[in-house]
């Protein structure tokens, strides 16, 4: 079977210019937030008259491929298909538009553009500085894409779509598990703002922070690293989000993060300030910075998982946000005094522990699925690599059974 290798710009339209619709025509408006990297498609579009967005935005068609060109969106894999409810879409000026010709299957092209190699090389080709670095049009246009016959493109795309669906189902499972603790909390304790028995956070725990220390040279600490705020902002503790410490720094024991700790960010954007994360696995050798506090419990009977879920509840998130100072888009801060004076429900230790045990079971299941998803991601990357080298002839059908037999996914019966 003959495979051509051609430049993408020779076989697609890059950032095409289309005739403008009537100003009163309804169009689909898609901002950067509506391009979902995991789904590789647009979601939650708005409907607007074209006249409202005719200037200062990028115009495209339903079915076009959108590539976020600005950092960090490019690095985060924001590449997907414009799945619109209208023929015309309008969106961020930070999109590159790719429109495949009749010689290219759209899904095949999308999978090619989402390959790690394309993303990594694009990052190296970015122009500009700081937060304004962008992937140039020339990089997209000059990409060399292997082009087998159209029927083979569709077969390869179907295999990759089926393999990707396994990952999609895993992510859906994780999303449901992430919602479950809050549903369970509301069922057992109701809305925290309506609790009759109240206490203050300061009566439950003391908040302990670290220091603002970062290595300024090659002389870095051989053992310890200091956490970044991003280690807790997702709600799941990530010890990999850490920076080097000076080689001569000797952290006190109170600054070292331990298994079972509950951490909270005292500074971040409006949406993320006060984010909490429970250290459910061995954190390694990391220490607290000045922008993350650890709860030092006044009673050994306190259940950190109970308070982690409490502080993530919508009503408590609003209360924490109201306590934060700062204006506009700047960094928000919470004072220790205000946070420790904040009122929270007073719940008996036995009830806290009963709830925590249920959450531990949920977290165990989440850990299992996360591990499976990581394995799926590695296998999918290998499958992508093989796909564009013409090495998928061993997979004649795009179904889970053939993928499983080829060692490219777990037992298909276990993915449902």
Q: Could you explain how this protein is built, in words?
A:
- Mean pLDDT is 90; it is low at 396-400 and 404-416.
- The longest helix is centred in the middle third of the chain and has 40 residues, at 150-189.
- This protein is an alpha+beta fold.
- α2 packs across α5.
- The protein has 11 helices and 23 strands.
- The protein folds into 2 domains: 4-147, Adenine-n6-DNA-methyltransferase TaqI, Chain A, domain 2, CATH 3.90.220.20; 196-346, Adenine-n6-DNA-methyltransferase TaqI, Chain A, domain 2 (Alpha-Beta Complex).
Short description:
The chain is α+β, with helices and mostly antiparallel strands. The protein folds into two domains: 4-147, Adenine-n6-DNA-methyltransferase TaqI, Chain A, domain 2; 196-346, DNA methylase specificity domains (Adenine-n6-DNA-methyltransferase TaqI, Chain A, domain 2, Alpha-Beta Complex). It is 34% helix and 21% strand.
């Amino acid at each position: 079977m003959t495979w051509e290798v051609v430049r993408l710009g020779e076989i697609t339209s890059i950032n095409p210019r289309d005739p403008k619709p009537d100003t009163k025509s309804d169009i689909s408006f898609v901002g950067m937030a509506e391009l979902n990297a995991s789904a590789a498609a647009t979601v939650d579009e708005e409907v607007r008259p074209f006249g409202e967005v005719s200037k200062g935005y990028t115009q495209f068609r339903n079915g076009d491929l959108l590539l976020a060109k600005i950092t960090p969106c490019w690095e985060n894999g924001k590449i997907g298909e414009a799945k619109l409810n209208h023929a015309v879409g309008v969106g961020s000026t930070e999109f590159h538009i790719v429109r495949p010709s009749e010689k290219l299957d759209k899904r095949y092209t999308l999978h090619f553009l989402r390959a790690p190699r394309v993303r990594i090389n694009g990052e190296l080709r970015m122009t500009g500085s700081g937060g304004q670095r962008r992937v140039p049009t020339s990089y997209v246009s000059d990409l060399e894409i292997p082009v087998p016959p159209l029927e083979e493109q569709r077969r390869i795309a179907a295999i990759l779509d089926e393999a990707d669906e396994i990952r999609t189902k895993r992510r859906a499972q994780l999303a449901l598990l992430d919602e479950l603790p809050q549903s369970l909390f509301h069922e057992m304790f109701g809305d925290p703002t309506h609790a009759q028995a109240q206490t203050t956070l300061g009566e439950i725990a003391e908040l302990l922070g670290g220091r603002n220390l970062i290595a300024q040279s090659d002389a870095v600490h051989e053992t310890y690293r200091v956490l970044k705020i991003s280690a807790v902002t997702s709600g799941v503790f990530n010890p990999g989000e850490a920076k080097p410490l000076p080689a001569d720094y000797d952290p006190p024991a109170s600054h070292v993060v331990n298994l079972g700790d509950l951490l909270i960010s005292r500074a971040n954007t409006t949406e993320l300030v006060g984010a909490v994360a429970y250290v459910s696995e061995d954190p390694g050798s990391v220490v607290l910075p000045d922008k993350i506090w650890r709860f030092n419990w006044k009673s050994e009977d306190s259940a950190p998982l109970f308070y982690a879920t409490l502080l993530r509840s919508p009503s408590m998130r609003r209360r924490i946000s109201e306590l934060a100072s700062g204006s506009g888009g700047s960094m928000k801060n919470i004072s220790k005094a205000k946070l420790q004076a904040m009122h929270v429900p007073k719940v008996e230790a036995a009830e806290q522990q009963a709830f925590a045990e249920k959450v531990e079971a949920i977290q165990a299941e989440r850990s299992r699925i996360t591990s499976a998803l990581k394995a799926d991601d590695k296998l999918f990357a290998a499958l992508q690599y093989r796909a564009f080298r013409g090495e998928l002839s061993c997979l004649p059908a795009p179904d889970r059974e053939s993928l499983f037999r080829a060692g490219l996914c777990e037992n298909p019966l276990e993915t449902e």
